[in-house]
Amino acid sequence: RRWAELVPESSWSPAVGASKMKVKMLSRNPDNYVRETKLDLQRVPRNYDPTLHPFEVPREYVRALNATKLERVFAKPFLASLDGHRDGVNCLAKHPKNLATILSGACDGEVRIWNLTQRNCIRTIQAHEGFVRGICTRFCGTSFFTVGDDKTVKQWKMDGPGYGEEEEPLHTILGKTVYTGIDHHWKEAVFATCGQQVDIWDEQRTNPICSMTWGFDSISSVKFNPVETFLLGSCASDRNIVLYDMRQATPLKKVILDMRTNTICWNPMEAFIFTAANEDYNLYTFDMRALDTPVMVHMDHVSAVLDVDYSPTGKEFVSASFDKSIRIFPVDKSRSREVYHTKRMQHVICVKWTSDSKYIMCGSDEMNIRLWKANASEKLGVLTSREKAAKDYNQKLKEKFQHYPHIKRIARHRHLPKSIYSQIQEQRIMKEARRRKEVNRIKHSKPGSVPIVSEKKKHIVAVVK
Amino acid sequence: MKARAQSLTAQYLRPKLTHPGPRGNQGPGGQTPAHQRNTGWVEKRKPHPLTAVSSPASPFYAGPSLHGSCFSHALYATELTCTSRAIDGNRNCFAAGTEIAFLRLPFLVHGDNDGEREHQKLLEAISSLDGKNRQKLAERSEASLKVSEFNVSSEGSGEKLVLADLLEPVKTTSSLATVKKQLNRVKSKKTVELPLNKEEIERIHREVAFNKTAKVLSKWDPVVLKNRQAEQLVFPLEKEEPAIAPIEHVLSGWKARTPLEQEIFNLLHKNKQPVADPLLTPVEKASLQAMSLEEAKMRRAELQRARALQSYYEAKARREKKIKSKKYHKVVKKGKAKKALKEFEQLRKVNPAAALEELEKIEKARMMERMSLKHQNSGKWAKSKAIMAKYDLEARQAMQEQLAKNKELTQKLQVASEIEEEEGGTEEKVEELLVPDVVNEVQMNADGPNPWMLRSCTSDTKEAATQEDPEQLPEPEAHEVSENSSSQEVLSELRVLSQKLKENDQSRKQKASSEGTVPQVQREEPAPEEEAPLLLQRPERVQTLEELEELGKEECFQNKELSRPVLEGQQSERTPNNRPDAPKKKKKEQMIDLQNLLTTQSPSVKSLAVPTIEELEDEEERNQRQMIKEAFAGDDVIRDFLKEKREAVEASKPKDVDLTLPGWGEWGGVGLKPSAKKRRRFLIKAPEGPPRKDKNLPNVIINEKRNIHTAAHQVRVLPYPFTHHWQFERTIQTPIGSTWNTQRAFQKLTTPKVITKPGHIIKPIKAEDVGYRSSSRSDLSVIQRNPKRITTRHKKQLKKSSVD
C-alpha cells in the first residue's frame, strides 16, 4: 500500500477550481491486474531491465550445469535387441518407405525382415548358401536384393509369399565370381554389385550393362551417391577408394590410403562428401573433388572401423567398429560425441541410421541387432510445448557453456568397457611417443630436411588420376 | 548413289589392299573390334578429315548421325588404316598413302555422274587434239591420277584446262622434275606419331570424366554452404502436398448411391441446379448468352472498373486507418472540417435554401452531440488519460483540448443567429454571444484575465523550467560523481597548463627549475593523473635536460652526477629498475612520476660510474641516441607502463564506502548536497589492505586478482569459432532464458539448429528441393546409349559361358 500524496491540483487539471487543494490517492487501474475470467492466466508484469536482474550469468551457468548433469542422468540410449539370427549379422538395410521395417542378412545365408515397433521378426528367408554379403532395398520398397557367397544375386519381393506359395526369389542371377556387396540406384531400376569389378546391372537383364575395373583387386563395397545418383564409390582390399561415373561408364579417380577401407558412405545432404571407414581405426571424410587431403579425420575407435552410415540430416554419422562399440561423430568434429556399447555386444559389423534420424541400428557378431536412440538422453514420445521449450532452452544452455571446464568434463564423461579404456590409454601413450620422436627428429636435423606432415595428409599414400 | 560411291572407293582403294597382311581382306563384318582397338590412334590425328567425321570414336555414337555414303567410306577408311598399321615394313609410306586417299575421299563422294561424264568428255577432246599423246592419255586411269602412293599429287586434276598447259608437254623440259621434287619431299617427311598406349588413353578419359563430374558437383557448393551456416534446418526438406482435392473434383467424382441421395439428385436435376460444375446455374448461363457480346464486354469493363476503384478506395482507407499518428488524424479531421465549411460557404452563396437545410442538419448534429456526453471526459480514453495526466504533459493537453471542445459544443451558440445577424442584426443576440464567450475563454485557455489562472500558469511555466532544469542539472552532477576522476583530470590539466606557462618563465630564470616544479604540481593534485599535460610538457623538459647535460659537461661535478643518470634513464629507459629505494623517500610511493624519478637525486653508486662512461661517449653515439630519441618521440613505454601500474594499484585498493543519504537529518532537494560533516560521519574508511606484492618491484605488475579457486571454473583457452575474447564474453553475458527475455525473444534464442519431424522419412536432398533443375536424362538412358565397355577379359568370360 502506498501513502497518500498531496498533489497541488493545478498541476494536473485546470477544469476544477484552482484555489482548492485536493487530496488524491495514488490509484491503480484494476484493468492492469484484474482478470476478466477465472480461467485467464494471471498477468505477471515483468521488467526486463538488466539492472534489475543481476547475476544472470551465474544463474544461467548453474542451469547449464544442471542440464548437463541431467543429460547424463537420463542418457539411456539402448532400446531393444532383436534376436533370432543363428549367426553373426553381416548386413543391414532400411526400408525406403517404411520406418518400422528393417532387413538383415546373416553369415549363414539367412535374411530376416523385422518390425521395429513390435520388435519381432516378421519373415525369414534362407537366401544364400554361405554369407549374405550384401543386402539392399529397391528405392520404391517393393523388393530387395541380396548377394551371397554362392555367387548369386537374388531379387526378393518385400511382401511374403501368399498361402501355400514357396519362398522364392523373383530373379536369380548366377555370376562368375563372388559378389561382395550390392547397392541399388536411388531413382532407377539399376543396381551395382562389386567383387572383382564393379558391375552395373539393369534389373531386367541377366548381364551387367556396364562393368568398370581399375586394376585387379577384390572390391569390398560399392555405394551409390544419393544426391548425384550417377556417382558411385567403391573401396577395395588394395587400400584404395575408387570413384566411378555411371553415365560416362568410367572410373574417375582413385585414392590410396595407408590401410584398407572397409566401407564408404555418402553424405545425403552434401553431394560431394563421403566418409570412409578404415582399418587404421580412423574414419576419413573426403570431398570427392579434392581427394589428396581429407576434410576431416575422425578418430576415437580403438580397432578397425567396419561400417559407417550417415544420419539423414547429413550432420552426423555413426560408425561400427571391431572394438565392440559404435560411435557417433559430428561431421565437422574429429572426435566422437557419443559411444554406445553393452556388455554382450561383440564386434559390430554393420550399422544403420534410421530414415527419421532418431534411431540407430547395429548388427553384431553375436547374432543380435540392437536398436539405439541417436540422442542418448532424448525423451521419446510426444512432448508438451513446455517440455519442448525447456528441452530447447537446456540444449542452448549446454551449448553456450560447453567450454567451461566443469561442464565440459561432465558432458564428456562416459563409462567405457575396460578393454576399450585401456586400449585408449595405451594408444595415447604410443601416439605421444611417436609424436615425441618426430619432434626430436625435426629438432636434431637440418631445418627443412624433415618435412612436417599434417595429420590429415599423413594417411594418404597417393591419389591416382 | 551410295552403291556407286562405294564401288568408286573400292576401285580407288583396291591397289592398297593388295598388300599381303593379316587383315588384308577383312570384310565389314569384322571391323568393329579392329576399330575399337585403334580408336585412340585414329582420334589422335585431329586434322584428319576422316576422323573429323567419325570423331566420337565409337560406331555407336557415330552410327545414326552419319549420312549413308559417308559412313560406308568411313568404314572402309578405318579398315584401311588398320591394314596399313598391321604391315610393319613400310608403314610410313602406306600411312602417307592412305592419308592421300582420305584427302580425296570427300571429293570422290561428291563427284556426281554428270561431273564424271564431263570429265570423260574433256579427256576425249584432249585426246582428239593431240594425236601423239593419245595413247598415253588413254592409259592413264583415274585411280592412278588421283590416288598416288607417294603423296604425288596429280597436278591440275581439278583445275580448268588452259591451252598453254596443253602445249607444255610439247616443250623439251622433262616432266619428271616436279615429280622428283615431290618424291624427295616425301622421303624427308617424318613418320606419323605412335598412338598412346591403352593405360594413358584410359587415364585421359578418366581425367576428362572427373573434371566433368567435378563441374557438375560444384553446383552444390552454394547449397551446401548455406545449409552448413543455416541457423535452423527443418527436415524433411521437401514440403508435403496436402491431400485436399479441389471441390469440383470431389463433386464430379461423386455419385448418388442411396435412394435418398438419388431422390435429391433428381430434384436438383429438375431445377437445373448445377451438380457437377457449381459455378453457374443454367439460368445464369442463359442470361449470359442472351447478352450481346459488346454489351457484355462493356458491362464487364464497367464492373471491373468499379471493382478496381472500390478496391483502391478500400486499400486507401485501410492504410489510413492503420496510421497510428494522432496528429495525422487530427490534421485530417481539421482538414475535413475546413472543407465542409468551405463547401457550406459556397453552398450558401449558390443556393441559400439548400444551405439552410444543411445548416439545420449541422445544428441537429450539434444537438445530438450536446445530448450525448461524448466530450465530457467520461469515455474510456478520457479515463485513461486522466490517469496519465499527472505525469504526461501531452495527455494533460489532450484532456484540456477535449474539455475545450466540450465547452464549445455545449455552448448555447447559434450559428444560424449569426447569419441572421448578418442579415438583420439584433443587439441582444450580440450580447448573448459576448457574455458566454468571455466565460468560455477564461475556462478554455488560461490566458484569460483571471489572476488565479494567470498565477497558476506562470507557476506552471516556472515549474516546467525547474523541471527541465533538474533534468539538466543532475546530469553533470552524476557525471561528476561517476567520472569524478576524469573531470578532475581535466581540471587539473587546465590548472597544470596555466602553471606551466608560469613555470616556463620561471624555469628560464631558474636553472634547476624542474626539481622545483614537479613537486609543486603534485602538491596541487592528490591524484597525479596528468598524462596529457606532462606529455605536452615533455619537449620542454628534454630541452632543460639537455641544458643540464651541457651544464654537467661544462661545469661542476655535482651537476654531472645529477644529469648522467637522468640521461641514462631517459635514453635507455630503465631508470625505474635502478631505483628501488627511490619510492621510500616519497610519501606516496605508488605515485612515482617519471619526472620525479628523473629529476631526483640518484644514488651515489650510480653516479660513480658516470664520468668514465661519459668519457667513452663520443659524438656519434650521441647523434645516434638523438636519432633514436627522435624516432621514438611518440611512444613513451615507461610512462605507459607507469600509468598502467598506477591504475592497477588504484583498482586493487579497497574503496571507501560512502553511506550518506541526502535529505536525512537536513534539508534535501535539488541542488543540495549533504553537508561535509555528515559526509565525514557516514564515510566508512576502507581498511588498508595487505601490501602489494609488486610494491618494491617498480617494473613489474603482479595481478593479485587471480583466484585459483575461481580459475578452475573459468575457460582457459578461447574456444574455436571466436576470434577475440570479448566476442566470447559477450555471448556469455547475454542471457537466453525467459527470466531475462521476452517470450518472443526467448523462443527465437532457443530455436534448435536441426528440427526433425517424428515419424517422417528424411530423403536425401534433391536438386528440385533447392531450386535446381535436375538433369532430364535419366542415368539409365545415358548408360544405355553409351557403349558397353566390357573388357576383353570379361568378354571372353561371357563367350565361354555362352559356349558352355
From TrEMBL, chain A:
The gene is DCAF13. InterPro entries: Sof1, WD40/YVTN_repeat-like_dom_sf, WD40_repeat_CS, WD40_repeat_dom_sf, WD40_rpt, WD_repeat_DCAF13/WDSOF1. Belongs to the WD repeat DCAF13/WDSOF1 family. GO terms for molecular function: ubiquitin-like ligase-substrate adaptor activity. This is DDB1- and CUL4-associated factor 13. WD repeats lie at residues 82-124, 298-339, 341-382. Its main location: nucleus. Pathway: Protein modification; protein ubiquitination. One of its GO terms (biological process) is decidualization. It comes from Macaca mulatta (Rhesus macaque). Residues 374-460 form the Sof1-like protein domain. It is found in: Nucleus, Nucleolus. Pfam families: Sof1, WD40. Part of the small subunit (SSU) processome, composed of more than 70 proteins and the RNA chaperone small nucleolar RNA (snoRNA) U3. Component of the DCX(DCAF13) E3 ubiquitin ligase complex, at least composed of CUL4 (CUL4A or CUL4B), DDB1, DCAF13 and RBX1. Interacts (via WD40 domain) with DDB1. Interacts with ESR1 and LATS1. It comes from the Eukaryota. GO terms for cellular component: Cul4-RING E3 ubiquitin ligase complex; nucleolus; ribonucleoprotein complex.
UniProtKB/TrEMBL annotation, chain B:
Keywords: Nucleus, Phosphoprotein. It is found in: Nucleus, Nucleolus. Residues 1-10, 569-578, 773-784 have a biased composition (Polar residues). It holds the Pfam family Utp14. It comes from the Eukaryota. GO terms for biological process: rRNA processing. Residues 538-563 have a biased composition (Basic and acidic residues). Residues 1-37, 443-590, 771-804 are annotated as: Disordered. GO terms for cellular component: small-subunit processome. Residues 786-804 have a biased composition (Basic residues). Belongs to the UTP14 family. This is Serologically defined colon cancer antigen 16.
